[in-house]
């Protein structure tokens, strides 16, 4: 057994610069942990608490302890929680005591580590009603004299609020926590460290303050203290206080009316005068208010009906005359090379972004407030003024109605095209090209009455954009973006596209951009392929031969990326990115050409293309795999039963995809592609089904796989059953119990949040699609009787989701369809059962009178099938 | 507790094109799923409404369907599917027709196709009997072009012998296109049509050859004969049809006796019946049988051809569509006891043949007799022409080589790309 001294040495050695020493120490720590977990955790806690030990060993002890309690991966986290809960009480009590003791340590880093560990333990124990005295003992610390104990305790309370859900802490404790925190923020608190810790703790505790924000007096108090803290002489406190305001803006929007005037004054002062870190938070407050109002107005279509949960208070609209000038001022504070730096974020960028949100929140009203600024500055000699004016213009293009903007935009278009070719500033050209893209995005397309792009100016626009694609990478990238929206506007144009005469030139220019030496800068290459994809997507039959000519070109490029030379890891990453882009491009082309009348000619490339995709799977890149998989799905759909010939080779990659838990997007996409293949091959998929079903069942039982993949897996059961019919028999014994237990889980999602409801509905939909596929697959087979035992449960499931009253339209349609399929396949065997179910009456009637014609249609089919089933 | 990152997307679209592709795929998948379900529902309904009507008869057309269904126990397909094992029970002319129509038959090379070196493989055809080898249900059967069984034997092909633990799924079967070479009692495989139940009909020659090479060896079928493996199988070596490939196939030494060269277009699928995408070419050096022999194995002084008589008295080749060579008058047909569908043998007289654009302008035909019964088909246009050329102005090996070398010259020119 290790003694305390040895633990210290091990922890220090584990941070040694000498690799061998470090490795040895790490191994010993692992060994210790595996041999005696309780002893290990206890000695770590003891190390952390011991003021005589070196800071470094104490900090690491705390970190190791924290990692023994929590992990990122859901399944690992669960294991750790169970492990902690199963420790003996004596050990846990001792560890808790060590942790609380550490909060009094004179060493700041050690206190902070302890705060986080305590919060982790609380996160595990409070929901289990363990460590009930924790909050009490922390609160008693608040009244201790040494300021550093108070600071550490407030920090702990903050982390605790972040870690545990409000419903496991009693209201009485919540009140005391908030009281302690807000008092700590008060200007009466003389110690800045305490005040900062309290302000940051409030940020995390805001979610606990629901009841307090409903109480006028308590809310007034909290708001007053927060606003005062924004005026603190200490910049970090001001910044933390604005962070609280930002969070309050989204959490308690509907409680803010009373405080908006004061908040405007505070934020305006901060934006104009304060340190940038504070000013950015002040702008973010307004961005958050806009986010809220945009959501509210979107949800209720701008009409305040009285029954909406949260009314719109139009804070943005009221602040408009003062807010817009404030934001416009920030636009002039650009940094020289912000367009070249991917990670840049400054006050001009934040201000412009906020202006865009304001435009979306208020619509037409913003235009007169911004136009004078634009008109005054757009031709000034200083590039900052020209850029700011252009950026302001681009920012307000989303929100106001086309009618309001059309005249201005038409007048500006020629100016912008001119600026794009002539302005000497890279910065101005970047923003100009972006603004053109915004014009095309919002004011060009089949829904716009008077289009800004006409026969008269189309050629000039394209010429300028193509020219601009040769400019610096950041400018060229924006030109590609503009072309993207230019093409998108012709999406529903019909058989003749105005782009047809320019099609060849556009394609060639985009390929040339993608091949530029500097194409990897400023996302240029990605933007070029994205624009190419959109141009192809929106192309008409007139240009299909040109798209067809693109096939060998893109295939050759993909082929080139696969010719393995020795590459550095950086080059390889770029190569993989390019593979992803090319596979994406081929996917778009497959979807364009894979149907009549181009299908026949196009499919002559299929073998070779498939060969390339299979080689992409040989490279290690999740994005490229995902793109290749998506492309194969599209190819399977185009190939139909002919796809069978690729299966022998493709199958192993399908299996690999299904096993890719870590890059779950790949797994999800693979599941979708199996559906494509089922529909393409029908019963020719049978030889592969054992393998596929085994893997899908494994995926479902895994707790490592991201939950979003599970609903599509159930749908995939349905696809397989529909494809192979009664051959699905051998999987019935495995899949039905899985479906049944998932159904039980998903029947009641009560009390959960929106996100959970949405997930539950997608799970239900998957389960129901599986049932539909299975019933339809067994239709007219002598083996239908195998399904009869499952009918009562399925009907019960339908009844319970109906009673739950929280299903969405998609689930409604699938559910009523399942009722019909069940009746149709099992017929008179289940006539009695069906008649007893609620679904066959109230639910069916509700669906029959639905406004959604797809639901109505499914319901009519169900009614028909039920009538037949019970009439026999 | 660091301040939180505030950055919002700047001058960016809210969703990436990749996300858009993902979303569009999901949308397509869910639409197709609901279409498939909709079809299933409609199908189910129509089956119910048609319940009283009798089950459909076997459609004779399906006899010539190229690809039998993998799953013969399948529900819907039961009535209409007719697979190769069921076809094995056919007898006489029916069987002959069925099997003959299953093989891919080369045209004779009467001119050199374009891009020979880029798009074609060349291989030396072994001398021997062309046959289909089918392995399934624990046995292997080889059938000649006329449908008659050549051998019935155990083999190491998948499902080719009653031996546990070797074959794949019970239902699976394999079909190889072979030439049986008497001298070393070996089946030389020239093509793979089905493997373990997977159809390769719709695959390119490039893929089929690749598959053939990699899969056949795995089974042990290329090993020496044994109790469970009566005949050795061997893959015929194939080459890209460039200078060196042509040279290897033409002059290279091989374990079998050659009978001409076969040229396969790499992109062509397995097309049953005559196809211009597989070509046969022969000369004296690589074949003992350049010029057709008569029934006694003698080269007749005049070229003999076999044509089919049609209802209207026209005599035509076996091509699809048939090429009309000449027309017989009704009296002659009556006198000679011919009936529509008869295969008739003619000699070509001194007047010879004259063709323009694949049509006979003039053909000096002399009636010999009705052809013997073993034949299933008339001669093809390309065979008639190749034989005619062989007697008068043959296409020589040097001609092939010089075409390839010209192509190589052209290939050296820079290719035109779409980008600048």
UniProtKB/TrEMBL annotation, chain A:
SUPFAM superfamilies the record matches: ARM repeat
InterPro entries listed in its UniProt record: ARM-like (IPR011989), ARM-type_fold (IPR016024), IMB1_TNPO1-like_TPR (IPR058584), Importin-beta_N (IPR001494), Importin_beta (IPR040122)
Residues annotated as domain Importin N-terminal: 25-105
Subcellular location: Cytoplasm
Listed Pfam families: HEAT_EZ, IBN_N, TPR_IMB1
Listed transmembrane segments: none
Keywords: Cytoplasm, Protein transport, Repeat, Transport
Main location group: cytoplasm
UniProt-listed PANTHER family: IMPORTIN BETA
Protein name per Swiss-Prot or TrEMBL: Importin N-terminal domain-containing protein
From TrEMBL, chain B:
InterPro entries associated with the record: Snurportin-1 (IPR017336), Snurportin1_C (IPR047857)
Domain Snurportin-1 m3G cap-binding, residue spans: 102-279
Protein name stated in the entry: Snurportin-1
GO molecular function, one term: RNA binding
Pfam families referenced in this protein's UniProt entry, alphabetically: SPN1_m3Gcap_bd
Localisation per UniProt entry: Cytoplasm; Nucleus
Main location group: cytoplasm
Key words of the record: Cytoplasm, Nucleus, RNA-binding, Transport
């Amino acid at each position: 057994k290790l003694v305390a001294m040895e633990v210290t040495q091990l922890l220090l050695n584990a941070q040694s610069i000498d690799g061998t020493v470090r490795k040895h120490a790490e191994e010993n720590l692992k060994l210790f942990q595996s041999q005696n977990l309780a002893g290990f955790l206890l000695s770590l806690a003891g190390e952390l608490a011991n003021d005589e030990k070196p800071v470094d060993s104490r900090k690491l002890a705390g970190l190791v302890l924290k990692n023994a309690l929590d992990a990122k991966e859901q399944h690992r986290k669960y294991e750790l929680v169970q492990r902690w809960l199963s420790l003996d009480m004596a050990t846990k009590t001792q560890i808790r005591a060590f942790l609380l003791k550490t909060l009094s340590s004179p060493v700041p880093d050690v206190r902070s580590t302890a705060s986080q560990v305590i919060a982790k333990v609380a996160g595990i124990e409070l929901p289990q009603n363990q460590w009930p005295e924790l909050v009490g003992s922390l609160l008693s610390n608040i009244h201790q004299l040494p300021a550093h104990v108070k600071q550490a305790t407030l920090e702990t309370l903050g982390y605790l609020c972040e870690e545990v859900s409000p419903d496991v802490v009693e209201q009485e404790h919540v009140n005391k926590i908030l009281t302690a925190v807000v008092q700590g923020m008060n200007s009466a608190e003389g110690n800045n460290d305490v005040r900062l810790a309290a302000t940051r703790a409030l940020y995390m505790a805001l979610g606990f303050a629901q009841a307090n924000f409903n109480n006028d007096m308590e809310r007034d108090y909290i708001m007053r203290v927060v606003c005062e803290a924004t005026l603190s002489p200490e910049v970090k406190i001001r910044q933390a206080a604005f962070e609280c305001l930002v969070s309050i803006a989204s959490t308690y929007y509907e409680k803010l009316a009373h405080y908006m005037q004061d908040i405007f004054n505070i934020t305006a002062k901060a934006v104009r005068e304060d340190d940038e870190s504070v000013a950015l938070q002040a702008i973010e407050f307004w961005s958050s208010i806009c986010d809220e109002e945009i959501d509210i107005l979107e949800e209720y279509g701008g009409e305040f009906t009285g029954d909406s949960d949260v009314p719109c208070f139009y804070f943005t609209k009221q602040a408009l005359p003062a807010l817009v000038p404030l934001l416009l001022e920030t636009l002039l504070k650009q940094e020289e090379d912000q367009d070249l730096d991917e990670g840049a974020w400054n006050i001009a960028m934040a201000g412009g972004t906020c202006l865009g949100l304001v435009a979306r929140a208020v619509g037409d009203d913003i235009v007169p407030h911004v136009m004078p600024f634009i008109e005054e500055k757009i031709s000034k000699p200083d590039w900052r003024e020209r850029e700011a004016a252009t950026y302001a213009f681009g920012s307000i293009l989303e929100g106001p109605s086309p009618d309001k903007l059309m005249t201005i935009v038409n007048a500006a278009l020629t100016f912008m095209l001119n600026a794009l070719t002539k302005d000497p500033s890279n910065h101005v050209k970047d923003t100009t090209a972006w603004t053109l893209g915004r014009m095309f995005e919002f004011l060009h397309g089949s829904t716009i009455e008077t289009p800004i792009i006409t026969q008269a100016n189309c050629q000039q626009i394209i010429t300028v954009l193509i020219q601009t694609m040769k400019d610096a990478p950041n400018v060229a990238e924006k030109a590609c973006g503009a072309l993207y929206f230019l093409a998108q506007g012709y999406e529903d144009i019909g058989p003749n596209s105005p782009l047809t005469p320019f099609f060849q030139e556009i394609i060639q220019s985009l390929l040339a951009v993608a091949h530029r030496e500097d194409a990897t800068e400023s996302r240029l290459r990605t933007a070029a392929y994205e624009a190419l994809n959109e141009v192809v997507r929106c192309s008409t039959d007139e240009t299909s031969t040109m798209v067809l000519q693109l096939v060998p070109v893109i295939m050759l490029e993909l082929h080139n990326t696969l010719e393995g030379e020795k590459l550095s890891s950086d080059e390889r990453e770029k190569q993989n990115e390019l593979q992803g882009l090319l596979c994406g491009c081929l996917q778009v082309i497959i979807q364009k050409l894979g149907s009549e009348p181009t299908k026949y000619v196009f499919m002559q490339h299929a073998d070779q293309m498939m060969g390339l995709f299979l080689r992409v799977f040989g490279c290690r890149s999740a994005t490229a795999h995902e793109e290749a998989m998506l492309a194969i799905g599209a190819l399977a759909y185009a190939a139909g039963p002919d796809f069978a010939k690729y299966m022998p080779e493709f199958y192993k990659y399908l299996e690999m995809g299904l096993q890719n838990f870590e890059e779950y997007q790949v797994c999800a996409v693979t599941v979708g592609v199996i559906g494509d293949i089922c529909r393409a091959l029908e019963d020719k998929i049978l030889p592969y089904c054992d393998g596929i079903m085994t893997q899908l069942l494994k995926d479902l039982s895994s707790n490592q796989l991201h939950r979003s993949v599970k609903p599509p897996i159930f749908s995939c059961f349905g696809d397989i059953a529909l494809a192979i019919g009664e051959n699905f028999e051998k999987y019935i014994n495995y899949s039905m119990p899985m479906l049944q237990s998932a159904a039980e889980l998903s029947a009641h999602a009560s009390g959960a949040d929106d996100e959970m409801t949405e997930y539950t509905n997608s799970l239900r939909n998957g389960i129901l699609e599986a049932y539909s596929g299975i019933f339809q697959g067994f239709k007219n087979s002598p083996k239908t009787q195998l399904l009869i035992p499952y009918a009562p449960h399925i009907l019960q499931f339908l009844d319970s989701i109906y009673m739950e009253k929280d299903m969405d339209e998609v689930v409604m349609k699938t559910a009523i369809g399942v009722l019909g399929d069940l009746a149709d396949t099992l017929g008179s065997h289940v006539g009695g059962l069906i008649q007893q179910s609620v679904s066959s009456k109230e639910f069916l009637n509700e669906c029959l009178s639905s406004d959604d014609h797809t639901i109505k249609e499914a319901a009519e089919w169900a009614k028909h099938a039920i009538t037949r089933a019970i009439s026999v | 507790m660091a301040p939180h990152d505030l950055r919002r997307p700047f001058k960016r679209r809210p969703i990436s094109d990749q996300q858009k592709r993902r979303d569009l795929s999901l949308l397509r998948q869910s639409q197709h799923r609901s279409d498939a379900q909709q079809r299933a529902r409609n199908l189910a309904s129509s089956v119910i409404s048609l319940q009283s009507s009798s089950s459909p008869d076997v459609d004779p057309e399906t006899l010539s369907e190229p690809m039998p269904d993998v799953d013969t126990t399948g529900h819907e397909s039961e009535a209409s599917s007719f697979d190769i094992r069921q076809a094995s029970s056919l007898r006489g002319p029916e069987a002959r027709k069925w099997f003959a129509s299953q093989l891919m038959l080369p045209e004779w090379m009467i001119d050199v196709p374009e891009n020979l070196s880029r798009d074609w493989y060349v291989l030396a055809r072994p001398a021997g009997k062309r046959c289909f080898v089918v392995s399934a249900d624990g046995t292997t059967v080889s059938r000649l072009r006329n449908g008659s069984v050549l051998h019935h034997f155990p083999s190491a092909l998948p499902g080719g012998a009653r031996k546990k633990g070797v074959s794949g799924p019970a239902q699976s079967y394999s079909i190889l296109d072979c030439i049986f070479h008497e001298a070393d009692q070996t089946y030389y495989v020239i093509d793979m049509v089905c493997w373990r139940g997977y159809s390769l009909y719709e695959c390119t020659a490039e893929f089929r050859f690749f598959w053939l090479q990699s899969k056949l060896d795995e089974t042990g079928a290329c090993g020496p004969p044994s109790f469970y493996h009566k005949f050795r199988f061997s893959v015929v070596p194939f080459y890209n049809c460039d200078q060196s490939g042509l040279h290897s196939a033409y002059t290279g030494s091989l374990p079998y006796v050659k009978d001409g060269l076969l040229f396969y277009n790499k992109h062509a699928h397995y097309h049953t019946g005559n196809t211009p995408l597989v070509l046969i070419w022969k000369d004296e050096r690589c074949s003992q049988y350049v010029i057709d022999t008569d029934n006694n194995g003698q080269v007749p002084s005049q070229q003999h051809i076999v044509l089919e008589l049609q209802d209207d008295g026209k005599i035509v080749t076996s091509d699809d569509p048939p090429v009309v060579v000449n027309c017989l008058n009704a009296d002659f047909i009556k006198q000679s006891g011919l009936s529509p569908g008869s295969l008739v043998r003619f000699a070509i007289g001194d007047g010879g043949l004259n063709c323009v654009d694949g049509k006979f302008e003039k053909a000096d035909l002399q009636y010999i007799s009705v052809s013997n019964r073993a034949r299933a088909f008339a001669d093809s246009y390309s065979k008639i022409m190749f034989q005619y050329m062989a007697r008068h102005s043959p296409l020589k090996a040097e001609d092939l080589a010089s075409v390839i070398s010209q192509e190589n010259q052209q290939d050296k020119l820079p290719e035109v790309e779409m980008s600048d």
